[in-house]
Amino acid sequence: MTDKIALVTGANKGIGFEIVRQLGERGITAVIGARDELRGKEAARELGRPHVQLDVTDPDSVAAAARWIETEYGRLDILVNNAGVTVAPPLGLPSATTTGTLRRIYETNVFGVVTVTNAMLPLLRRSPAARIVNQSSELASMTRVMTEDSPLWPLNNMPYNSSKAALNMITVTYAKELWGTPAKVNACDPGYCVTDINNGMGYITAAEGARIAVRLATLDADGPTAQFFGNEGPLPW
Ligand code: NAP
């Protein structure tokens, strides 16, 4: 084992579950963040990893998780903000989107990331080389969604796409605040994975999708910060 400690939000299933598994294979102590205690326990049993109850939309639960990590480990080296939600089409069409829907998606995909990151930053600042990875989407890329012959063109999901675009800017702002320190903050797109978020419609497995987050979570000192990557390399904003 290395002595690195990681926290992955939304890790009781899907891509987050696989990120925990792959970080564990690298000898990292990866903690499963799960909003549902029972689902977290089941994932912990399956992976043989620790878990902590953490609902990214509930600041009390996030603060309690930070206290638990401090008590157990004293610091945090890796934070993967992976928890995410979407709305099924056609509800994401701009004209069909209510502000209530927009708020619900932003609570998890945007505000939740800020709540968790700010709660964990004091612990991350104790790491000699903190890594923050934000699980974004290619659908956040204005360049990609505006390419007319791209398969992304029809996926005009305003709450989801705009939440992930906000997340990309949030990634850059944290990276800038931590500029000049050993910490690195990047965003990634896992690719279109077979998970519950898309009712199993993806092309690749969650394990394949987990790889880019794991790569960014384990970057060397000369690795990038404030960038956006897919499995094939850098993505345009
Ligand atoms: P998933 O299987 O639906 O998993 C989503 C995870 O997020 C679940 O563990 C879920 O917990 C958790 N979650 C949702 N709301 C939460 C909250 N308020 N607090 C804590 N955890 C919460 O979907 P996935 O595909 O693995 O998605 C993981 C991330 O990848 C998301 O950010 C998604 O936007 C992104 N992504 C996925 C794809 C894809 O093709 N699958 C592509 C691009 C980006 P519960 O089990 O309790 O619901």
**Can you count the beta strands?**
8
What is the CATH first-level class name?
Alpha Beta
The stretches of 5 or more residues where confidence is low (pLDDT under 50) are: none
The SS-based structural class is alpha/beta
Amino-to-carboxy terminus distance: 36 Å
CATH overall fold name: Rossmann fold
Number of discrete helical segments: 7
Count structural domains: 1
Shape: globular
Widest sheet, order of strands: 3-2-1-4-5-6-7-8
Give me the CATH superfamily.
NAD(P)-binding Rossmann-like Domain
Beta-strand percentage? Answer: 5-15%
Describe the fold and architecture.
The protein is 42% helix and 14% strand. It is of the alpha/beta class and 237 residues long. The protein has a single domain, classed as NAD(P)-binding Rossmann-like Domain (Rossmann fold, 3-Layer(aba) Sandwich). It has an 8-stranded mixed β-sheet, with helices on both faces. It is globular, with a radius of gyration of 17 Å. The N and C termini lie far apart (36 Å). It binds NADP nicotinamide-adenine-dinucleotide phosphate. NADP nicotinamide-adenine-dinucleotide phosphate (NAP) binds next to helix 1 and helix 4.
State the gist of this model.
It is built from 7 helices and 8 strands.
Key traits:
alpha/beta; eight-stranded mixed sheet; Rossmann fold
SSE layout and pairing:
Blueprint: E1 5-8, H1 14-25, E2 29-34, H2 37-47, E3 51-53, H3 59-73, E4 78-81, H4 99-124, E5 131-135, H5 142-145, H6 158-177, E6 184-188, H7 206-217, E7 228-230, E8 233-234
Parallel strand pairs: 1-2, 1-4, 2-3, 4-5, 5-6, 6-7
Antiparallel strand pairs: 7-8
Helix pairs in contact: 1-7, 3-4, 4-6
The structure holds NADP nicotinamide-adenine-dinucleotide phosphate.
